[in-house]
Structures are given as C-alpha cells and as structure tokens.
Amino acid sequence: MVTRMTDPDWTSVMKKAKGIIAEEGGRTCHAAIVSRELGIPCIVGASKATEVLKNNQPVTLDCSSGQKGRVFKGQLKYEIRKYNLDKIPKTRTKIMMNTSHPEAAFKNSFLPNSGVGLAREEFIIASQIQIHPLALCCFNKLENRLLKKKIEKLTLGYKDKKEYFIDKLSQGIGKIAAAFYPKPVIVRLSDFKSNEYAELIGGELFEPEESNPMLGFRGASRYYDEKFKPAFEIEIKAIKRVREVFGLKNIWVMVPFCRTPEEGEKVIKLMKKGGLVRGKNLKVIVMCEIPSNVILAREFLRIFDGMSIGSNDLTQLVLGLDRDSAYVSKVGDERNEAVKEMVAKVIRECRKRNKYCGICGEAPSYFPEFTKFLVKEGIENISLNPDTVVKTRLLIAKKEKKR
Q1: Is domain 2-73 given the CATH code 3.50.30.10 in the classification?
Q2: Tell me: domain 85-402, CATH 3.20.20.60, correct?
Q3: Active site residue: 30, 258, 350, 357, which one?
Q4: Residues 309-323, buried b or exposed e (16+ Cβ, 10 A)?
Q5: With DSSP H G I counted as helix, E B as strand and the rest as coil, what are the percentages for the chain, rounded to 5?
Q6: Which pLDDT does position 62 carry in this prediction?
Q7: What is the maximum span of the chain, computed from C-alpha positions, in angstroms?
Q8: Which has the least CB within 10 A, 82, 131, 215, 249?
Q9: Can you tell me whether residue 5 is helix, strand or coil?
C-alpha cells in the first residue's frame, strides 16, 4: 500500500497489505504503529512515493537497518531466522507485549511473555465497530436518513444500538484477555483524537474541528465531559462485561493522556459509578506521557496503581514536536538526555512506592541502548512489539548477567 498517510478507519484494509509506504509521518504516526502490531514492514516519511512508485510495480521493503527504511526494485530473496523458544533465557525484567488486534492475540501469546502491556481499544473500535459511540447513543435522535440507514445495516439485530458497541468491544478485548489468561492484560481506554473520531461513521456530527488534535480533546479530558460521558459509560460497560460475564479478571485498565491528578480522580469516580472499582481485584494505572505526569508523579501514584511510560508522546512533548511531521522526525529520539531524565525519575518514584512501572512506547523495540538504560534503572516491565520480543529478551538476559 502506497499512500500519503493513513487514518484509523483504514485498519481493516491495512490488514490485507504486505507492506506500507507513507509519504508523511514519523516512527510514531498511525501507519507505523498499526503496521508494527500487524507484523508488516512500513516506511514513513517517504516523500514523493506516490509519484515514484506505480500501480502493480513489484518492490521489496527493508526495515531491518535501524531508522532508515529502504525500497528496492523487484522482489528480493530473504532469509528466515528461527529460534528455539525452549532455549530462550528467562529475565528478571518482565517482558510484556503491545498487541491490540484480537485476531493476532492467540498467535502472539505463544511468544515468551509476562502478559500484555498495552492493548489499544482504538483498533477494535475502528475495525470491528466503525461507528462513533455517540452516534449509537443518540441513534433515535439522528435526523440524517442515509446515516441512520448505514448504521442500521451495520447494527442489524441490535435493537439497542449501544448494545452493539458494548458487545463488539467486549468481544475484541475478551479475545486478547483469553489468549493471555491468567497473565495481566492492560487495556488502555479509548484515546482517539478528535480528527480520528470524526472519521468514524457519524463522527463529524459530534467532533469539534481542532487545529492541533494531538494536544486537544483526547484521553481523560473526554471521559468526564458532559457531551462525551455517555460514550465513556458504554465503554466501561464493555470492560465490566469482559471481567464479570466472561470471567476474565486478568484485565487491568489504563487511563491515557491524563493531564492532572484531579482529572485522574474524576475518571476513577466515573469508573466506580459504572461498576469498575479500583482495588477490588482491579488495577487502574495511568499512562505517563505528559511532563506533568513525571513532575507530579507522587500525586498521580496516590490515585493510581502504577504508571506505564508512553515514550512516544512523552518524547514529543518534552522536545516540543509534531510527531506526524516528517520534517522534525529526526529530532524525535527517546535517547535524548532530557527524555531519559524523565523516564528515570518515573522509574524511581514507582519503585519507591512499590507501584507498577512499565513502558509501552516504541523505544525499547527499536533501540538496544535504550533497553539497556531501562534495565539499568530497574524498570519492572518492558512491553514490546511482538516481532522484537525474542531478540530483546536475549539482549536483556545478557545485560542482567553483567549486572
């Protein structure tokens, strides 16, 4: 697939691709993140790709040489390297996985792991549900006949359209939780940006137009907003169904983009109201991806059961980057000393309070030296893309042996 850039509603099409080349974006843009979870090669920031490459032209993508991808004419030969999983050494540092596609969960579960460090709801919503949750909550009030007809077609058999959302989301999360049971599966609450939500069916009716959605109406701030709250309520019902009806209590909940401790308290209260009570065999952690999460780590850890470092957004916000821009992508590097200072502080604060501390950003999957840094600092969990689990585990075992 060769394109300018991808959007969340492209996920079902991306599953069919053998590789993706995008003209825009950096290592942490949508195309890069989704392709990693799908296990297909992806090159981003390839300017003029749609002009240079032609329809049906055979090419070979090579993403094995670090940060620079290469595109070759024709189909080149390649080598498959196999590992005996019985001989993979165990590590003190727990290795978890980033996996959000229910279809790939059982296959990924056979890799050596300690559970799922990040399961994103967005992939399930974009590919399995496709409809904006508020369009389902307000279905009877919709005036657009064509839109209602489109929703009716997708939700055939569901008299209560909200039940369609709850059913599909719980099934998707349930597949991932079942695949890794009884190991913990950390489900991140929905973190679409407003422009991404607008791409869902009916989304344009409920989403504001923001000049910078990446820094706008997303994460925790949505959940307690009066207009969006009905959507959050059915999201909570879906997770509750997975835990209580399906019996998969290995599910943890993670709150993304929580700007202040006060926001965290509001979200936990709403969860409790919906039947998800922190402490009753349920851990609720927070994504550490904003400088305020690091600076006020003590305050956040009074509210939450731990932190999972989102190194993608944290790097973006520490270095002041637009992570969808190919122009500044060369500056966005988690190995930057300012970013490492932030990460080290979070690890220390979590260890001091005996709280969960993990990382679910892309850096450990890319940079061996960053992984070594995390091990040296004593991080508890490192969550990796499935295709890097074995080689990173070997690296960590070697590093721990030297300590």
Answers
A1: yes
A2: yes
A3: 30
A4: bbbbbbbbbbbebeb
A5: 45, 15, 40
A6: 86
A7: 67
A8: 82
A9: coil
Closest by CA to 245, choosing from 167, 302, 301, 299, is 167
Predicted local distance difference test score (pLDDT) of residue 103: 87
Q: For tokens 């821009």, what's the residue?
A: 325
**Annotated catalytic residue 138:** no
State the virtual CA torsion across 302, 308, 313, 314 in degrees, nearest 10.
Answer: 60
- CA separation for the pair 167, 184 (Å, rounded): 22
Catalytic residue status for 30 = yes
Q: What are the pLDDT digits (tens) for 65-102?
A: 667 888 999 999 888 878 888 888 899 999 999 998 89
Catalytic, out of 42, 63, 137, 360: 360
Domain positions in the chain:
2-73, 85-402
d(CA 278, CA 281): 7
CA pair distance 155, 135, nearest whole angstrom: 12
d(CA 228, CA 39): 33
72: closest CA among 21, 120, 122, 24? 21
Q: Within a 13 Å sphere around the CA of 313, how many CA atoms are in the beta-carbon half?
A: 23
For residue 361, which amino acid is it? G
Mean pLDDT over 341-368 rounds to 94
Q: What is the pTM of this model?
A: 0.86
Compute the distance between CA of residue 59 and CA of residue 116 in angstroms, rounded to an integer: 34
